[in-house]
Amino acid sequence: GKHVELPPVEGIIILNILSWGSGANPWGQEKEDQFSKPNHWDGMLEVVGVTGVVHLGQIQSGLRSAMRIAQGGHIKIHIHSDMPVQVDGEPWIQAPCEVVVLKSALKATMLKKMKGKMKRRNTEPFMAQVAASGSGTSPGLSIAVVSEQGESLNHNNEF
């Protein structure tokens, strides 16, 4: 990895997509510098800095972009004292530590619509059987599962 000294900033933002804070683009427009053009499939994270609340407002309104600091698939941040941190809208005070952000850990599974018709199963007789057996009256957790052969597999777990 490459050690990067932070410029004088009040905060840093790590982006895995170009949209941030209700649609703002802190990375800004493409320009000639040492950074490659970011996109959502490149396996890279973008790190930018902001100088304060006025700078954040300028980014939101499109007047300025944030300060480009780094790009990489593996970001390690050393926090030397208590500091406010926010991830996806959830704030907390972070004690001194080392934070590692991996692009590979940020992948999400998406659902895709399949072409053609889905095979539907008739579940009404099974649901009547579950209702008659009293499943769901346990103070713990009650799970009803249907096997591929249509057999009822009931599981009750107490927590």
Automatic annotation (TrEMBL):
- Keyword match Zinc: yes
Its cellular-component GO annotations read:
membrane
Q: Where is the Diacylglycerol kinase accessory domain?
A: 1-91
InterPro entries per record: DGK (IPR037607), Diacylglycerol_kin_accessory (IPR000756), NAD/diacylglycerol_kinase_sf (IPR016064)
**Protein name (record):** Putative diacylglycerol kinase
Enumerate the UniProt keywords alphabetically: ATP-binding, Kinase, Metal-binding, Nucleotide-binding, Transferase, Zinc, Zinc-finger
Give one Pfam family, short name only: DAGK_acc
Q: Which GO terms describe its biological process?
A: phospholipase C-activating G protein-coupled receptor signaling pathway
Listed transmembrane segments? none
GO terms for molecular function, please?
A: ATP binding; ATP-dependent diacylglycerol kinase activity; zinc ion binding
Source species? Rhodnius neglectus
